[in-house]
From TrEMBL:
Its cofactor is Mg(2+). GO terms for molecular function: inorganic diphosphate phosphatase activity. It catalyses: diphosphate + H2O = 2 phosphate + H(+). Belongs to the PPase family. Catalyzes the hydrolysis of inorganic pyrophosphate (PPi) forming two phosphate ions. This is Inorganic pyrophosphatase. It is an enzyme of class 3 (hydrolase). Substrate binds at residues 32, 46, 58, 142. The keyword Metal-binding applies. Mg(2+) 2 binds at residue 73. It comes from Moheibacter stercoris. The lineage of its organism: Bacteria, Pseudomonadati, Bacteroidota, Flavobacteriia, Flavobacteriales.
């Protein structure tokens, strides 16, 4: 059985409060990397059309399934850019609710658990106001030149974000039960 980080890395022992995030895109990148679900490899999906770059580290939470039938997206705020495919312990502090191409596409917001400069933050309401404006602006603009519409709804607190994480773990377990059984046998 080949290794696939979506299926074979755990969501974390302290979920839904702290999850393991797998970084696909380091902060500052214009490259839109994405996990190739079939191979488990990182694939260059596209170079962003707009003159923006990812404001924070971006990736997914393993063993989760969001409304868009992809792993649940996560933004990890950290003072450094984190290399792609790095696992980072991420404390869930909120969620950015959005709709992309007519589907729910929640972005969990977290801080790096092992970064003293941000790990004291417990809720999205504690972030500097400019940071949330920056995130909202990025997600509203990053697909405009592709003529795609993204609707950023609002930021919601850590409690709602943890509920979304829990629901996405349940969705994953219901849809990928056999993969988990096969992996545990090997």
């Amino acid at each position: 059985m080949k290794f696939n980080p979506w299926h074979h890395v755990t969501v974390g022992e302290e979920q839904p409060n702290v999850v393991q995030a797998i970084i696909e895109i380091p902060q500052g990148s214009k490259a839109k990397y994405e996990l190739d679900k079939a191979s488990g490899m990182l694939k260059l999906d596209r170079v962003l059309f707009s003159s923006v770059s990812y404001p924070h580290n971006y990736g997914f939470i393993p063993q989760t399934l969001g409304e868009d039938n992809d792993p649940l997206d996560i933004i990890v705020i950290c003072q450094i850019d984190v290399d792609p495919m790095c696992i980072i312990d991420a404390k869930v502090i909120g969620v950015l609710r959005m709709v992309d191409n007519g589907e729910g596409d929640d972005k969990i917001i977290a801080v790096a658990q092992n970064d003293m400069s941000v790990n004291h933050i417990n809720d999205v309401s504690e972030l500097p106001p400019h940071l949330t404006v920056e995130l909202q602006n990025f997600f509203e603009d990053y697909k405009k030149l592709e003529n795609k519409v993204v609707v950023v709804e609002d930021f919601q607190n850590a409690e709602i974000a943890r509920e979304i994480v829990s629901k996405s773990i349940k969705n994953y377990n219901e849809n990928y039960e056999q993969i988990k059984k096969d992996y545990k046998r090997n």
